[in-house]
Amino acid sequence: MRNNRGYQPRVEKKDAHRINNLIRGVAEVRLVGDNVEPGVYKISDALKLADELELDLVEISPNAEPPVCKIIDYNKFVYMQKKREKELKAKSSQIVVKEIRFGPQTDEHDYEFKKKNAEKFLKDGSKLKAFVFFKGRSIIYKEQGQILLLRLAQDLEEYGKVEAMPVLEGKRMIMFIAPKKKK
Fold first, then answer.
1. Of 131, 128, 140, 123, whose CA–CA distance to 106 is shortest?
2. Which residues are within 8 A (CB) of 103 and not within 5 positions of it... i.e. 6 or more apart?
3. Residue predicted with more confidence, 137 or 10
4. Is 168 left (phi over 0), alpha (psi -120 to 50) or beta?
5. pTM for this model (two decimals)
6. Quick one: which of 160, 166, 161, 176 has its CA closest to 122?
7. At what angle do helices 108-123 and 142-155 cross, to 10 degrees?
8. By CB distance 3.0 to 4.6 Å, which of 89, 98, 156, 159 could disulfide with 121?
9. Average pLDDT for 21-35
10. Given CA atoms 67, 70, 73, 76 in this order, what sign does their dihedral have?
11. CA distance readout (Å), 75 to 68, 78, 119
């Protein structure tokens, strides 16, 4: 929301967890942690215990009855959470789809050239979207387009497997090939 001068008011970022004195509206909490005797404590006792250990009382599970809290260094806890999320994100891979376009009457040299590119894409781990584009009245050659795509699939059999057989969508006949897993 902007005010009449065009400035946006600063909104303070809220923490994902309630900590220390921000844990309100409950009389007791279930305390868990490494350096604490697990059990149900009064909120004042839990805060006192956290203060003695010079750590923070962090509400881990607010919906539990009573809420579950842990005595930890909150900044370190947030840092470790972000680090874990970053590692998970790094492990997840992005799927890249490369496209190769043919005409229904692609000659042998062009076919070989495009097949080599397709081979390279599959070796690099990218998915391949091969399609035959029919212009104007060339749609009458759809059998030739299908034969061309099936030939490509057969030639690339050792590098990838066909995910979707050739399908005609409008003026395009499309086929997907996924790379084979490296052993």
1. 131
2. 132, 133, 135, 138
3. 137
4. beta
5. 0.48
6. 160
7. 50
8. 98
9. 78
10. negative
11. 19, 5, 49
